[in-house]
Design brief:
3 copies of one chain form a homotrimer. The longest helix of chain A has 25 residues, at 7-31. Mean pLDDT of chain A is 84; it is low at 1-5 and 207-212. Chain A has one domain (2-196). Chain A contains 7 helices and no strands. In chain A, helix 5 (120-142) packs antiparallel against helix 6. By secondary structure, chain A is mainly α. Chain A is globular, with a radius of gyration of 17 Å.
Chain lengths: 212, 212, 212
């Protein structure tokens, strides 16, 4: 019930996040000089991967399977990146689009998990997975070390956005407001990380550095 | 209803595809000089991986879980590759078996998705995933660069077979005929690619080649 | 019905296995000098990954999703490894904890599959997947060659434990007894492998060694 007020906004956010992640998947294929078919494959997996894992885990019908529009957006993204030679775009532009997609997907994923009756902690985990899993599969398939698992502030920003959304809902905020503050919090942290080159400290072992 | 006429043929195709992919998984383990246990593990994952992902996505009970025959075929394939030192077989023989399996799995996956009420585009996607996902996991686990993601015409052939099947069904063809033309189309394209060394053109970036 | 007598013991074993695997995930993050966020991510994926795959395959609600305690144990494990600089612990201690977790998870996974009506062979496969899948994802994400896929006796020990459990149940043993002999069998084989450096023979190709 409380969810329904925010649902149209969530769907717009969801579609936007799918499209942005699909573009990032196609760009990974471009970096690897792949074919148009691999462009499409990477765009689909990166675009819908995170939300697919979320839906499987919470027992929901997978969001893109019964319809054509989400896949269509992914294929369109792949085609546009190929035709427009989009790797000429400044990579910084992509980083900012990706930041928006991540912040949107973290809140959308958390909201859907809450609406399925999950407690706060697993709901936040679902938001983090939704925002990060597509990019992780993309990196594993492309054979690149996953930037998401480095010191960059990415998963942290997704976790912050998801946590702020849950906190706002628990404090009684209307879903639309909670969505705005959650997306803003995740995006702002990620934006600072991009603009200032912020990163988290890595683990410091106990002895002299052994190169394994 | 319309599916039921083609069902026995589809089940035979399905079991054949599982067996062929299980052999290819065991051969990957052989190349890596693995143990008999890893042979079995690779055979199972490669044999049933694609159909497993399809069933999870469309919300069907996973096809091999409630019975023993599919797993049995995979274990048998692993044992035979081990005992017969099957890597002595000419690899070209394997390529042809694999082409049959791919073409069969693409149509079987698409047909199952259609029978669950999916629209055309996601049904084709399911056929492509069914035909390719097992091989992709096999390559990731073996630490090999996935040949499926290179310029080789593989996913394209699966997509062609799936698309032809859907088109034939939409034009009112009986399922048995649609299956035959779909499998033939996918196999023929793949066969040309193997025999003539055809491949798709890779993406050409916009500037001088940067080695990332 | 027959399961219910063993259920509390199985739940304790399950939680113990999740905790032990979460520690091993956090230690992998420590080896890679990762951040606290990646510690948490690796702990969760390694801790619950195997059981998650099992539940998706058998069509059960994913065990950790509707509650907070399993995720909480994983996050706690990540925090403790970080704070206590647990990589100073002797790695041999970890190996033994991991052996207990593997043996427990193999029997827990098999028992749950049997209780969902699966035949013997797929139930044993579920036990093996539950015990090994989390560690395999951990290794793939960390970019390490998966030790589980080498000559080490690991998957074999999980398969032995699962098979002994199924055999004992089929012979009419009460579930508590079957659990004890299954866990003991898997743990003992793994313990011998660790203590004596046992490993399985790798596949020997048919010709002179070709480096692919």
């Amino acid at each position: 019930m409380a969810m329904s007020a925010a649902r149209p906004a969530l769907q717009v956010l969801n579609m936007a996040a799918v499209g942005v992640f699909a573009v990032s998947g196609a760009l990974a294929a471009a970096r690897a000089k792949q074919t148009i078919v691999t462009f499409a494959f990477f765009a689909v997996i990166t675009g819908v991967g995170g939300g697919t894992l979320r839906d499987l885990l919470i027992g929901a019908p997978v969001f893109w399977v019964g319809r054509s529009d989400y896949l269509g957006v992914c294929l369109l993204a792949a085609g546009l990146v190929w035709l427009l030679r989009a790797d000429r775009w400044r990579m910084s532009a992509l980083l900012w689009f990706d930041a928006i997609g991540m912040a949107a997907y973290a809140v959308v994923g958390t909201a859907k998990a809450l609406s399925f009756g999950l407690p706060a902690l697993p709901s936040i985990m679902m938001g983090v997975l939704t925002a990060s899993f597509g990019g992780i599969i993309r990196d594993v398939l492309a054979g690149e070390p996953s930037a998401l698992l480095g010191p960059e502030i990415y998963i942290s920003a997704a976790a912050l956005g998801a946590t702020v959304y849950v906190g706002a809902i628990m404090l009684g905020a209307p879903p639309a407001l909670a969505t705005i503050v959650g997306v803003s919090a995740g995006f702002t942290l990620r934006a600072f990380a991009i603009a200032r080159g912020l990163s988290l400290p890595g683990y410091r072992g106990s002895g002299p550095d052994k190169s394994d």
